[in-house]
Design goal:
The complex is a heterodimer. Chain A is built from 16 helices and eleven strands. By secondary structure, chain A is α/β, with parallel strands linked by helices. In chain A, the strands form four sheets. A five-stranded parallel β-sheet of chain A has the order 2-1-3-7-9, sandwiched between helices. In chain A, helix 4 packs across helix 10 (199-212). Chain A is elongated and about 80 Å long. Chain B is an alpha+beta fold. Chain B has a single domain, classed as Cytochrome-c3 Hydrogenase, chain B. Helices cover 39% and strands 13% of the residues of chain B. In chain B, helix 4 runs antiparallel to helix 9 (227-233), helix 4 packs antiparallel against helix 15 and helix 6 packs across helix 7. The chains are: A alpha/beta, B alpha+beta. Chains A and B meet through helix 4, helix 5, strand 2, helix 6 and strand 5 of A and helix 1, helix 4, helix 7, helix 8 and helix 9 of B.
Chain lengths: 382, 623
């Protein structure tokens, strides 16, 4: 989607109108705005200066790890992002202003760039107890989010907390935390999950906008396809070991030293959509699997409440056999089944896993509701 | 009297609000209130989880001091399960912690704190040629590189690869960029600060331009400081660990191995970079700014650090059999465990109290009060030890605040105490404690790291021309000690990197003790404590494990100690006393107050506690 309009002067140029006509229009505009004629040069200057896209970054229930990831970007450099690609007008982490002046500047930015600014959200929105578990500027974060999102052109949910609710929304979700999209309705939303997302994924969304003038194409849930189009399992450098049945049996065994597949000691790479396998962290330096630890699926919805991290994913049913890590190598190399069989198997077990996730979500949800009922009873003194 | 609210306090982690009462006639702050305005309940979430998973949950307390909570959590679980990690795992965790310390402090200074001292607007009137000269002079005058620990195995860096540029062209380019930003009207992150505040006149325009240039320069380089975390833990923030050691197996026979020669080279290069950034950017900048402010008579903000500070100890030289049995403290290279009172009266007059091992499990020593926090305790209890803690909500402040009332409850943060008294924690506390212990003879044979701390303090004292008790307990001193701690952190990285290489060379590649990986090997019930002298100070985690699951988790973190609301008897914590000890020029532009708060590097997501909504006694887990 296109966020930023051209300058007024560019519009005039597009239509082949003269500089003289442009300046006359600026003069008329000065009068329309109720400004004194002495303000005319300022109006003309504003009309021909191309503005950087304005970003307002809000913080709810979060750990600031996403900010930290954002500033670790090296392609593009963070300095180039915040000085040349966007104007980061409001951020709890980086803004020099604080207190009253910070709040006043936020208000002014919302006014000056009404319907034009990009709103970046880091963190979940707590709803229980009227949202009082997250107060900012003397108001609840929910209030703040509703107010600031009203004039936003689009919303970026940065990180798994904004995207899925994150750690505080894990069972039993003590603060009743929800995602940004549960509160903000009717705005284009782009989801950038991860705990945190890879730095260059965070800045990449902005870089894309700077290069092409629109937000990147997204999948059906709103994640940028470029960064979340593949499962880590499908891009993992250890994938050949999975296919050939070479697994780490326990941490620091011979297989671990050889860098074999971590499936058996717990890896969610087969169910996690992210760029850790192909892009990696620090421009190709590493990712958790390369450091010898299974993927915990931190970009996936409710990953905290799925299986324990060191449990292997469920076994893989196929039309003719049950495949798990002990047999997948055999099946994978068998002429009859071949690679297609393995991929089909993975897809099946992904579906199964997602079903099991849904069951768990349902359970967690029920537990949460039960918890709430207990609370209200107690509140009534019963 | 004027009541001034600062909410949000920006350039911190999490949500912090302060309110001050100022006498407008003399700029004196007569009272101050500090409040954590959010809580997330991560400890409740951690309940009933597999103790082997909990480092990941608890690590998400904070993404700025990332890895510190995971480390304390692992130590607590390993203490409970009586797991001794392999030598290499201890070395690797220490390297990761060193890189976190360096990174955290460096980013804190430049990106969260510098704009309290320096202004891009002032930089506009600098002469780029003079700035280049100033850079050269600064590197000469504040050359403290000799204090950094050098490689013992392989002196890998042929010459320093990282000097701050000192050409007029470089400074002119940055100045032109700032000018362009100002002219565009889109001032972004530099918008709306009180740039006309008189304190921005203390430094020369050239010093402003030099520091602002380093702000931008370091912003683009800081990611490389945490490369050890990316190599050993796979990513950052939130690197990966395992209970029992590290997942990153070592083999020199395979490029697929998590750790091999090439991976060690990446770590080594990052440590060199870290040392250079500290020695050529961070420390000279701090000393330039600190000296100018001290010369301008700004030595306030000491507050509680003058009276009482506390530390836990860090950097176990060798692996240890547990925390609660005291072995952890015995192995520490930095024995900052203990409490020091009255450092401001001079190191010879300061009082030292030890703190180690069993003390962390003693219900008389560390307690928490809730008189001014939005919690209530059962009838008859006023202070409780963390492992007996009760957290029952008593929120009563509504959904809109104008002013909070300091005579009532006013924060989501509890008030932790040492023998019923507030203490300040952090690098300043750590430096006061080690210095006192060495000077008073409580440490008879200082380790190289402790010796380094003493040398650092004496070097700075001589550069500033002041005694330690004169410059340390102040906002400037707190910020300077954090920079010294970064130099110590990078030296520890260097030391443990050498230790790792030597140990691999001796044939030991083990990184994980998996003897107790299987939950059937665990006792039915056990408990443990993990302590850590984190970048922001004393951090303690307590865990109870029952039938293979976490039954109780609790953390008392540095910012809780510092940001606590007052006690029933009115005694205040470090943030409030720092503010009261600060003079402000104009009540409607409370820059000095925010500068003082930033000197603690506030981390509010860490500090805020949980409650359980049904009001039942929960398992005392709070963060």
């Amino acid at each position: 989607m296109q966020l930023q309009n051209k300058t007024m002067w560019e519009h005039f140029q597009d239509r082949g109108l003269s500089r003289r006509t442009f300046l006359k229009s600026c003069l008329a505009l000065t009068a329309v705005l109720g400004l004194s004629p002495s303000e005319f040069p300022r109006v003309a200057e504003a009309a021909e200066t191309k503005k950087l896209p304005v970003v307002i970054w809000l913080h709810g229930h979060e750990c600031t790890g996403c900010d930290e990831a954002f500033i670790r970007s090296t392609s593009p450099y963070t300095s180039d992002v915040i000085l040349n690609m966007i104007s980061l007008e409001s951020s709890h982490l980086l803004s020099s202003a604080f207190g009253e002046a910070f709040n006043a500047h936020l208000e002014k930015t919302m006014e000056d760039y009404d319907s034009q600014y990009l709103l970046a959200i880091e963190g979940a929105v707590p709803l229980d107890d009227d949202g009082t578990s997250c107060m900012t500027g003397g108001h609840t974060f929910k209030h703040e989010l509703e107010k600031v999102s009203a004039g936003a052109a689009a919303v970026i949910e940065y990180g798994s907390c904004a995207t899925w609710g994150g750690i505080q929304a894990a069972a039993p979700n003590p603060t009743g935390s929800v995602t940004t999209s549960d509160v903000v309705k009717g705005k284009p939303v782009i989801k950038v999950p991860g705990c945190p997302p890879i730095p260059e994924v965070m800045t990449g969304v902005i870089m894309h906008y700077a290069l092409f003038g629109e937000l990147p194409p997204v999948d059906q849930v709103g994640r940028p396809l470029q960064f979340y189009g593949n499962r880590i399992h499908d891009t993992c450098y250890k994938r050949p070991f999975f296919d050939s049945g070479k697994f780490v049996e326990k941490f620091d065994d011979e297989g671990a030293k050889k860098g074999w597949c971590l499936y058996k000691v717990g890896c969610r790479g087969p169910v996690a959509y992210n760029s850790c396998g192909n892009m990696r962290w620090w421009e190709g330096l590493s990712y958790p699997i390369q450091a010898g630890h299974g993927c915990i699926g931190c970009s996936e919805k409710d990953f905290w409440d799925n299986d324990q991290f060191y449990d292997r994913l469920p076994s893989i049913p196929t039309p003719n056999a049950v495949i798990d890590a002990d047999t997948v190598g055999l099946v994978g190399t068998a002429a009859v089944v071949g690679a297609i069989g393995v991929h089909a198997a993975i897809t099946t077990f992904v579906n199964k896993h997602e079903q099991s996730k849904k069951d768990k979500e349902q359970k967690a949800h029920e537990a949460h509701i039960q918890d709430k009922q207990t609370v209200s009873k107690n509140d009534l003194g019963e | 009297m004027k009541r001034v609210v600062v909410d949000p306090v920006t350039r911190i982690e999490g949500h912090l609000r302060v309110e001050i009462t100022v006498d407008e006639s003399n700029g004196k702050i007569s009272d101050a209130l500090s409040t954590g305005t959010a809580w997330r309940g991560i400890e409740v979430v951690s309940k009933n989880r597999d103790p082997r998973d909990v480092w990941a949950f608890i690590g998400r307390i904070c993404g700025v001091c990332t890895s510190t909570h995971s480390l304390a959590s692992l130590r607590a679980v390993e203490d409970a399960l009586q797991i001794t990690i392999p030598k290499n795992a201890n070395f690797i965790r220490n390297i990761m912690d060193g890189s976190q310390t360096v990174h955290d402090h460096t980013v804190h200074f430049y990106h969260l704190h510098a704009l309290d001292w320096v202004s891009p607007i002032e930089a506009l009137s600098a002469d780029p040629e003079k700035t280049a000269k100033l850079q050269v002079e600064t590197l000469k005058k504040y050359n403290v590189t000799g204090l950094s620990r050098r490689n013992q195995t392989l002196d890998s860096e042929s010459f320093s690869k990282e000097f701050p540029p000192a050409t007029p062209q470089y400074f002119a380019a940055i100045q032109a960029k700032i000018q362009k930003i100002v002219d565009s009207g889109q001032t972004g992150i530099f918008s709306a600060n009180y740039w006309d505040h008189e304190n921005y006149k203390i430094l020369s325009p050239e010093a402003h331009l030099m520091a602002v240039s380093h702000y931008l320069n370091v912003l683009d380089r800081q990611s490389e400081i945490v490369i050890p975390q990316v190599v050993f833990g796979g990513k950052n923030p939130h690197p990966h660990y395992i209970v029992g050691g590290m997942p990153c197996s070592i083999s020199m026979n395979d490029m697929n191995a998590p750790i091999n020669t090439m991976r060690l080279a990446a770590v080594d290069k990052s440590i060199n970079l870290s040392q250079n950034i500290i020695n050529y950017y961070y420390l000279p900048d701090i000393l330039t700014i600190g000296k100018a402010f001290i010369d301008a008579g700004i030595t306030d903000g000491g507050g509680l650090s003058k009276v009482r500070v506390m530390g836990y100890g860090e950097a176990p030289d060798e692996t240890y059999s547990g925390t609660s049995n005291g072995d952890y403290n015995k192995q520490c290279l930095v024995r900052s465990n203990g409490v020091v009172e009255d450092f401001a009266k001079g190191v010879e007059n300061a009082k030292f109290y030890n703190l180690e091992g069993e003390d962390f499990m003693n219900p008389e020593i560390i307690q928490e009060a809730v008189d001014h926090a939005w919690y209530k305790y059962p009838e008859g209890s006023s202070e409780l030890h963390p492992s007996d803690g009760v957290t029952e909500a008593a929120y009563d402040a509504g959904t809109e605040w104008v002013n909070l009332d300091e005579t009532k409850k006013y924060s989501w943060i509890k008030s932790p105490t040492w023998y019923g008294k507030p203490v300040e924690v952090g690098p300043l506390a750590k430096y006061m404690i080690v210095y006192t212990k060495v000077k008073q003879g409580h440490i008879t044979e200082p380790t190289w790291a402790e010796q380094l701390i003493v040398e650092q303090i004496e070097t700075v004292s001589s550069l500033l021309g002041l005694k330690p008790e004169e410059w340390m307990p102040s906002t400037v001193g707190r910020t300077a000690c954090r920079a010294l701690d970064a130099q110590l952190g990078s030296s520890l990285e260097r030391y443990f990197y050498d230790a790792l290489v030597n140990n691999i060379n001796a044939g030991d590649t083990s990184v994980a003790n998996t003897e107790k990986w299987d939950p059937t090997t665990w006792p039915e019930e056990c408990k443990g404590v993990g302590i850590h002298e984190a970048p922001r100070g004393a951090l303690g985690h307590w865990v109870n494990i029952t039938k293979g699951e976490v039954s109780n988790y609790q953390a008392v973190v540095p910012t809780t100690w510092n940001a606590m609301p007052r006690l029933a008897n009115g005694e205040q914590g470090a943030y409030e006393l720092c503010m009261i000890d600060t003079h402000i020029a104009a009540p409607d532009k409370p820059l000095e107050v925010v500068r003082g708060l930033h000197s603690f590097d506030p981390c509010l997501a860490c500090a805020t506690h949980l409650y359980k909504k049904d009001g039942s006694k929960i398992t005392s887990r709070e963060v």
